Amino acid sequence: MKITHFPLIRLFLPILLAVVLMSFVATAVSTLSAAPTAKRNVAIINLYNQHFRGYYV
Fold first, then answer.
1. Interval 45-53 mean pLDDT
2. Would you say 51 and 27 are in contact if contact means Cβ atoms under 8 Å apart?
3. 2, 22, 45, 48: which one has the fewest Cβ atoms less than 10 Å from its Cβ?
4. Using CA atoms, how far apart are residues 15 and 22, in angstroms rounded to an integer?
5. Contact indicator for 16, 8 with CB cutoff of 8 Å
6. CB of 44 within 8 A of CB of 25?
7. How far is it, in rounded angstroms, from Cα 45 to Cα 32?
8. Contact 31, 42 (CB under 8 A)
9. Do the Cβ atoms of 3 and 13 come closer than 8 Å?
10. Are 24 and 51 in contact (CB under 8 A)?
11. How far apart are CA 8 and CA 45, in angstroms?
């Protein structure tokens, strides 16, 4: 049985997911390239907190 009841959701969900993923990757790349090697783990944790806390908390 085909799911044809929600064509807009099927159309926009991959686009929205790609936009969020690309913004996260771009922020991660800029953060890691600017951070020294010894502080990369801290930068990843801070990036994760600031990126996901704003959406879910």
1. 74
2. yes
3. 2
4. 10
5. no
6. no
7. 11
8. no
9. no
10. yes
11. 35
Question: Could you tell me if 3 and 10 are in contact, meaning their C-beta atoms sit under 8 angstroms apart?
Answer: yes
Q: What is the DSSP string of 8-36?
A: HHHHHHHHHHHHHHHHHHHHHHHHHHHS-
At residue 47, φ and ψ (nearest 5 deg) are: -65, -45
**Is the model's pLDDT at 1 over the cut of 60?**
no
**Residue showing tokens 């783990």:** 41
For residue 15, which amino acid is it? I
Per-residue tokens: 38: 């010894």
28 neighbors 47 (Cβ within 8 angstroms): yes
Structure tokens at 12: 């926009």
Residue 57 in 3-state DSSP? coil
